[in-house]
Amino acid sequence: MIKRRDILKFAATAPFALTAPAILNSARAAEDNVIIGGIWSMSGFATNIGTPLDSGSRYAIEAYRSIFGRKLEYVLADDRSDPGQAIRQMQELIAKRGVKYFAGSTSSSIALAVGKEAYSRKAVYSTVGGADEITGKDCNRSMFRWPASTYSAIHATMLPLIEVNPKAKRWYTITGQYTFGDSLLNNVKSVLKEKGLEHVGNSYHSLADREFSAMIAGAIAAKPDVLVICNFGTQTVDVVRQAVSFGAKRSMQILVPWSTGLDQYQALGPDVCEGVYFGANYWHTIDAPGNRVLRDLVQKKTGGVPSYMEAAGYGAVQMMLEGMRAAKSSNPELVIPAMEGLKYEGVTGEETIRPGDHQVIKPYILMKGKARAAMKDKYDFAEIVASDKAFAAVEETGCVMPKG
Q1: b/e code 14-27 from CB counts within 10 Å (16+ = b)
Q2: For residue range 137-193, what is the model confidence (pLDDT) as tens digits?
Q3: Rg of the Cα trace of the chain?
Q4: 125 vs 104: CA distance, rounded Å
Q5: Cβ(100)–Cβ(123) below 8 Å
Q6: Which domains does the chain have, with CATH numbers?
Q7: DSSP-H helix ranges across 69-125
């Protein structure tokens, strides 16, 4: 016989009993999501870079929506422009959310730290860092790179410039004294030595510097034919603007081998950019199916066109999603080998992940700033002068890929 206290006990628990399946189903649905973690600098010195990279990552999630029937989810972690903070954020996402896939970071020093941590945690990390070490001596099975290396940037920009300007014998560099800047500088020196050209001087600056007039005065005094600016982000903008205001364009050519493309053109304006050479991983006019997808997304969201940083954030996430699609799995042990040698339609056309060092093989372009009067629209800042897949052979990178 059912006793009154049993009826009361059932009545008390009934609401939970009725709602429990919905709660459990919701929890299971969340667990079934494939989560991508974006580790970008939303504060600190690289905030201006982190924001569009994060936007690009979100565009990739929106473009794919799901992978083999599982919903995609994106979570953002702010590394505060600090390698230690980036590792802590990664560890937290792994521990609390079980995240196995990460895109980042805004600097090569952060990328190298996160890549090492990803390998120890058996995760997958797709980076936008440019230092040669990423796919060189510090390569590992967990780390993949979407943009070109600094080797590629220097060879794809300097060699065409030397070809069209054979009288450019004397070269001066202004360099950020950090991993990425030194990597650019070392490649500049290598090309100059190979071509028998003269490196007449270098000025180092720190990440904190914003005033470069003394360095530019020193560069002008050295009377170079070409000034090469080996840094990134807002410091590139500052150096170019100050060099032009000092009249550097009248006596030398200016080369920025690694630019962030459209956003830097917009920050500088056509009058400053006219005649200045810029290297870039991406330009919005590239006619490729993958780029049309990104352009359409950006047009709907902002009414504009994609920047390099948006394309890089998109590309970093896309390559992991294509790997999962190829593996038909979200298990890193299956996805990593599926990514090695993978070909897919990216924002620059067909992109290939090289197995030996996990470098994405795609074109790197050299552009020259247009005069204001030559611009066809408000985004038409430059003409493409050259495009090249200038990558060192795997055996020359220093990468010895671990087997497991």
Answers
A1: eeeeeeeeeeeeee
A2: 999 999 999 999 999 999 999 999 999 999 999 999 999 999 999 999 999 999 999
A3: 24
A4: 8
A5: yes
A6: 10-148+285-361 (3.40.50.2300), 150-280+363-394 (3.40.50.2300)
A7: 83-97, 108-120
Q: Which whole number is the average pLDDT over 211-221?
A: 97
CB of 157 within 8 A of CB of 279? yes
Percent of the chain with pLDDT over 70: 92
Residue 201, φ and ψ in degrees, nearest 5: 160, 160
pLDDT given at position 3: 39
**What are the φ/ψ torsions at residue 269 (nearest 5 degrees)?**
90, 155
Q: Is 26's pLDDT higher than 70?
A: no
Q: What stretches of 32-183 adopt beta strand conformation (E)?
A: 34-40, 66-67, 70-78, 101-104, 124-127, 143-145, 170-176
Q: Which amino acid is at 277?
A: Y
Paired residues of 39 in beta bridges? 77
State phi, psi for 346 to the nearest 5 degrees. -100, -175
pLDDT at 1 over 60: no
Q: How far apart are CA 95 and CA 86, in angstroms?
A: 14
Per the CB < 8 A criterion, the answer to whether 324 and 67 are in contact is yes
Tokens 């290598």 label which residue? 190
How many angstroms separate the first and last alpha carbons of the chain?
Answer: 64
Chain-centre distance for alpha carbon 165 = 30
Pick 303 or 17 by higher pLDDT.
303
Record the tokens describing residue 14, joined without a space: 């009934």
Bridge pairing between strands 124-127 and 143-145: parallel
DSSP tag of 361? E
Among 224, 264, 255, 218, smallest CA distance to 385 is for: 255
Token duo for residue 22:
């919905």
Q: Which helix (H) or strand (E) holds 229?
A: strand 226-230
Name the 3-class secondary structure at 1: coil
